[in-house]
Amino acid sequence: MFQLNDKAAMVTGAARGLGQAIAVKLAEAGADIALCDLNAEWLEETAEKVKALGRRAECYGVNVAEGDSVTEGVKAITKDFGKIDVLVNNAGITKDGLIMRMSEDDWDAVLNVNLKGVFLCTKAAMRGMMKQRSGTIVNIASVIGLMGNAGQANYAASKGGVISFSKTVAKELASRNVRCNAVAPGFIRTAMTDALDEEVQNKMKELIPLSRFGEPEDVANVVLFLASDASAYVTGQVLSTCGGMVM
Ligand code: NAI
Questions:
Q1: From the CA of 199, how far away is ligand 1's center (Å)?
Q2: How far apart are the C-alpha atoms of 15 and 173, rounded to whole Å?
Q3: Is 21 in contact with 220 (CB distance < 8 Å)?
Q4: Helix spans in the chain (H)
């Protein structure tokens, strides 16, 4: 049920972090991977990991916030792989600040990558999925999109938007057997959280019933579930992956 043999998956923001973990997880399940990030060269490390699993990896320089770049990227991927079965919209950025001090540029930058990027990639990839009458789209949101967070108005709005966008895609594409779900990660262990001092880390852990930060692989496992036939009857849902922080 969790197999992705003969599937082609497109993963955005795949150069590092969650995107890299997701690409490797989908490759472990048997998928060939179209890796996308701002610069194709940044994707070499992820590509090596995918190839080491015996799967195909191709790298594409795609700016998800720019329509022409996305159209070109999806065209190239469709030509190279023949199809896109799985789309994981993972690319995302933060530009934090209190609303009082948040610039219009910082608002636009975050909304353009995190929300418009999801729209552009979905629109470009869904045509083929509709034609082949199968496909799964997994959008990486955040618990912040469900609960809000002081200092992250732009990020929270973008991730809340990703959640409602995902539900709409699910409704529009269900009749073509294309599913769309969102994953809402909580605190995931990255270079950023590792750098926090122990006291801050312990305070954050008190908010998490499972008393630990998530690992990138915890998120990747949920993405694999939603990308595979194991979730064949699941669409339009948001699956929090946060150690119980949000219920
Ligand atoms: P990261 O910053 O380590 O990686 C993001 C990747 O996206 C980078 O490789 C970056 O180059 C790429 N990217 C940025 N802008 C892009 C654009 N315009 N076009 C194409 N690629 C672009 O981030 P991380 O932590 O791996 O996060 C991945 C996703 O997970 C993001 O959407 C983030 O909001 C979400 N998330 C992360 C959490 C965490 O604790 N790390 C928690 C909740 C959500």
A1: 26
A2: 29
A3: yes
A4: 17-28, 44-52, 67-81, 104-111, 117-132, 144-147, 153-173, 191-194, 198-206, 216-227
Q: Beta strands 238-241 and 178-185: pairing type?
A: parallel
pLDDT of residue 129: 98
Counted domains in the chain:
1
Selecting among 81, 155, 213, 225, the annotated active-site residue is 155
**Whole-prediction pTM:** 0.98
Q: Decide if 1 is inside a domain.
A: no
Domain contains 205 = yes
132 found inside a domain: yes
Position 196 scores a pLDDT of 83
Residue 246 pLDDT more than 90? Answer: yes
SS3 119: helix
Question: Does residue 246 lie within any of the structural domains?
Answer: no
Mean predicted lDDT score pLDDT of the chain: 97
CATH of the domain at 20: 3.40.50.720
Q: In which domain, by residue range, is 178 found?
A: 8-240
Is residue 72 very low, low, confident or very high in pLDDT (cuts 50, 70, 90)?
very high
Does 93 contact ligand 1 (Cβ within 6 A)?
yes
